[in-house]
Please model this.
Amino acid sequence: MNKSNLYCVIMAGGIGSRFWPMSTTKYPKQFQDILGTGRTMIQQTYDRISELFPAENIFVVTSKEYLELTYAQLPEINPNHIVGEPMMKNTAACNLYMANKISEINPEAQLVVLPADHLILKEARFQEKITLALSLVQQNDYLITLGIKPTRPDTGYGYIQYLSEENKSIFKVKTFTEKPNLEIAKAFLESGDFLWNAGIFVWSVKSIKNAFEKYLPEMVQQFNYCEYNSQKEEHCIEEIYPKLTKISIDNGILEKAKNVHVIPADLGWSDLGTWTSVYQNAAKDDQNNAVNSKNILSYNSKGNVVRLKSKNKAAIIDGLKNYIVVDTDKALLICPRDHDQLIKDYVQDLKNLKKGDRFM
Amino acid sequence: MNKSNLYCVIMAGGIGSRFWPMSTTKYPKQFQDILGTGRTMIQQTYDRISELFPAENIFVVTSKEYLELTYAQLPEINPNHIVGEPMMKNTAACNLYMANKISEINPEAQLVVLPADHLILKEARFQEKITLALSLVQQNDYLITLGIKPTRPDTGYGYIQYLSEENKSIFKVKTFTEKPNLEIAKAFLESGDFLWNAGIFVWSVKSIKNAFEKYLPEMVQQFNYCEYNSQKEEHCIEEIYPKLTKISIDNGILEKAKNVHVIPADLGWSDLGTWTSVYQNAAKDDQNNAVNSKNILSYNSKGNVVRLKSKNKAAIIDGLKNYIVVDTDKALLICPRDHDQLIKDYVQDLKNLKKGDRFM
Model:
């Protein structure tokens, strides 16, 4: 495979409000060492893909607000390849933007697009599946997504139904279903021919641009107004972004396109979308507490995830079972682990307080 | 009554480790607004006694370490009357020290000695009982303590057994018992002739000096070495303090003296010795949570005491019942209210950590 045609885009624009107060709009999850491994999520993502792609072929697309954070955390990446969107417009827009930008550099590019804030434990398996996908999109007009075998009826994920054939490593996608209710999620899990959509996409710039032409032609028109990789690009993007439709790449393209394929991949994957998933993936002490500091002493406490932002702070935890305790200089959260989906509502309540924004 | 003979000493040397992490060795409870009323405990104590005594007759004895805090919080008091002990030697030493110092100024002085960190809700009743005691010690060689009618079999207090006679407002003390076990405390409560020792003492300097001569003659010798209210005092005190016996005024004098009397006083008193007593005395919301900030939002939570030191911090509390939550820049405490007696042990565990002292 000609490596010079292989490109990677790390999507790093999220806010991570379900991770409040550790993740804030000013300093979101992808820029933090959520699991306490010594590398932030976006650095882990970079580490994972850096061997597969020439350094100059790696791009990051994030919010304009996070450009400085990204420069600082990923000094290995050419700053011109770290792109700031002027506002959040969901994932269709940034995918078209990056496809146009890379296509202008190399119209033969094959592209991997992946989120900056996911955990993947099985790195070799990941690289193997990505390599397979890249070789497939070189020869076929495929839009490929990696699919994770579901382990529970999670209602927070997108599900992919595929047409199963024996002895194959890639399958045609039949349907996409975003965030099903619990009953449906259980049925999906039992049926066995559904996978979680990990949001890791592989395609050629040609194929994805064709798909946009077909399913989001207006957005293509809007983006065609700009001249990429020129001094005018930034100003032009500022002009078109306010007019763009907010739609995900899943809803806008993948649910409609006929050439979507899935590669099932056992990656040791978690989207680390909630404190519960952090708890599940973090190292635990003999009482099953996941703590991130030696200065945390626990008594009569089991199954908690405790995160102190300051290394100079101590904590005493007595009598808590299965709680989330997160402390930063701006906010303290104490909440049962099974209420982690409510955190974004609590944050909204705080915002509704006078001057509540200062805690975000 | 000749007001010029009336003196008051506020004892403010405690560390308050049961109030960690709000109370620390650097910034103990008496210098904090524990109840959120807008005045610190020592300021409240000053407010309570300031009408009874000429301003120049009010003294504070504290640790040398807390002199600056005291100057700052009580600018009304002559700085020469704010006395710093070079080390903690329990309450006998500081009582003899202050008796000597005041006696040198006015050998006819009548003296009220009281802790800086207690809550008294019934201020008028307090002033009435103090005035009564002062008039009694002017004419009698009495050592008087105020006694609080017990409301529960508390094992953390000292108990005073008195010889009851009808229609009297002052009684001779029969026995003192420090911190009885629960069974004995229950028996005391039932018998009806026991009171809690509030640590509020009234005596003339003559009477207390006589008592020291009789029961702690060695300590009297040691203190006689110094010249009070002179430039040499501080240096001399530094020299004698290391040699002094550590003993409380209760153990050293009151348990032995034959002229100890008690005035029962319904003062709305609490020593605020634990977070539970703070909880009991603090204002509560409709879910019986005692919180000290509008930036605390609680859900499914009842009966908690929550204290955030920073006004610029928010907290979300979900699913806690009857907990203590205290947050400072150095430490976070989460602990069931009925474990508040264990806090000092937890603090000791923290100190045993390498560099644990920085959290105190």
User: Anything to note?
Assistant: The first strand of chain A starts at residue 6 and ends at 12.
